[in-house]
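Worked example 2:
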Amino acid sequence: MNIKLYSAFVLFFFGMIIHAQQVLTTDEAIKLVLEHNYGIKIANNTVEVAENNTGILNSGYLPSLTGNAGASIDVQDSEGQRVDGDVIIAEGVETRRYNASVNLNYTLFDGLGRLYNYKRLKEEYQLSELEARETIETTMLQLFSIYYTVAQLSENTDALEETLIISKDRLTRAGYQFDYGQSTKLGVLNAEVDINNDSINLINAKQQLRNTKRDLNVVLGNQILEDFDVDTDLSFLLALNKEELLEKTKANNVSLLQTERNINISQFDIKTNKAQFLPTIGLVGSYGWNESSTDNPLAFTIQSTVSGLSAGVNLTWNIFDGGSNITRVKNAKIVLENQQLQKEQLIIDVERNFNNAWDDYQNKLVIYRVQEANIKTSQNNFERTQEKFKIGQVTSIEFRQAQLNLLNSELSRNQAKYDAKLAELTVLQLSGELLNIAF
């Protein structure tokens, strides 16, 4: 008796250790994916680049300042005649020259091209933020798709394990009945076949569960180094209002917002090209220093130094460039028109996608509720069939059918449960609310 109690305690304790593994909640999964997902990291870096481009250092409003310096030495032979007739010959005469200067260039006016370009860069920065948001939303949907697949497979595995336990109990009962002459060997063989099938189904389900957990870990940046479970409890946002969400879709859908930014960028492209028709006025200034020295006896001076400031204003006006700038303006206007047409088409597409997603969500909620009710019916049917099987009022085939009906009901319920949740998340993503809810 003591050995049995000890064995039971060991089995119970070992089971507690197995089931005490890490449970990854949705909140923890979201935190991990935002911090470690590589696609999101890349998107954030792209936003940072766009933000750097909007800084004053990339605006064109600051002057350019350059420095130049140089030195040279010449060695030459020279010959000259004085007024008195004497000829002077100098061999290997060295002449040394040194120079340094600082030059300033600043554009005072360029037809407002810098202003429009700066505003364009601002729009590109906001567009990059929207692209990063789209990446995050897509990654979040991918995360929950895999997360809920893990949850579904976990519940499926539990159902298959329960089915295998029932099948093993049936085999034991069939063995007793055969030993006491209450049934034939056929009952035992049928039970063994069903156990084998249930075991194979369970093995396949566990392998699929392990594979899907690895898929989930990839999305999380491979941050989980041990086996884990997921939370199978979920709730639905039943207070969602279709009309309110539709208005939010038209105002906050990320694809529509991206189209609006592209339209703004095209408008600035037109203005930037038109600015090329106006003159450019620039300010230039420099400070220079030059020194020259020589030991040539023919030179009037053996050393000279010059330094000073210079400044000026220049005007450049490309009066006619062969018509290429006129062509660029015309093409930019056509690009703008196409983007406006694309926006109108996109509004229609987004509204249709939202209505489809909403109806799909409502249908899957109904299917989930029906499957929940079906579980109760199947459970009740199985329990009654099991009682009759124990007293020999139903055959093993009828019992097996009731068992399979219950299993299929559980698997269908699990499928409907997570399908409905993913359909809900799709609605929220289309309406721009996916990142604003608490999971």
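The chain is about 65% helix and 15% strand. The two ends are 50 Å apart (CA to CA).
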